[in-house]
Specification:
Elements (H helix, E strand, L loop, with lengths): L1 E3 L2 E3 L11 H16 L3 E3 L2 H8 L5 E5 L13 H12 L6 E5 L2 H6 L8 E5 L7 E4 L6
Parallel strand pairs: 3-5, 4-5
Antiparallel strand pairs: 1-2, 4-6, 6-7
């Protein structure tokens, strides 16, 4: 059982016919890592423009890495990402973060407050929100 972000998930482990125990152990370790690691990947402003044109749902946090550390105002975003990983096995949301103030302005946010955006599809207007950290 894997427990994290207020969620629990049972993982079943069985040997596939064509794999050995070592490979099964590696696969299990990878599953645990995938479910428990930080799901936020740092992304450049140019890469954000590219992902906005793609078909994959993407969540972007515009703010500092430091604000996402345990005990900091935006640490709860890790729980959001973990919840997605525990409950959605087939259509996962990609989670990104960008700490460049100029990129934030380029995407119509101010530099003073953290911001989030969810890009769903090029034909869909993105969901965006900017507020003091204790309100996001």
């Amino acid at each position: 059982m894997i427990i994290g972000a207020g969620q629990m998930r049972n993982l079943e482990v069985s040997l596939a016919i064509d794999t050995d125990q070592a490979q099964t152990a590696l696969n299990f370790a990878q599953n645990v890592h995938d479910l428990t690691t930080s799901h936020f990947v740092k992304i450049s402003c140019d890469q954000i423009e590219q992902l906005k044109q793609g078909p994959q749902v993407s969540f972007v946090y515009y703010g500092s890495v430091e604000s996402m550390i345990d005990g900091e105002p935006m640490a709860h975003l890790h729980s959001v990402a973990s919840f997605d990983r525990y409950h959605n096995q087939y259509e996962l949301i990609n989670f990104y973060m960008n700490d460049d103030p100029e990129c934030k302005v380029k995407h119509n946010f101010t530099t003073f407050e953290p911001a989030i955006a969810m890009y769903v599809h090029p034909e869909v207007i993105p969901f965006t929100m900017q507020a003091p950290a204790d309100e996001l």
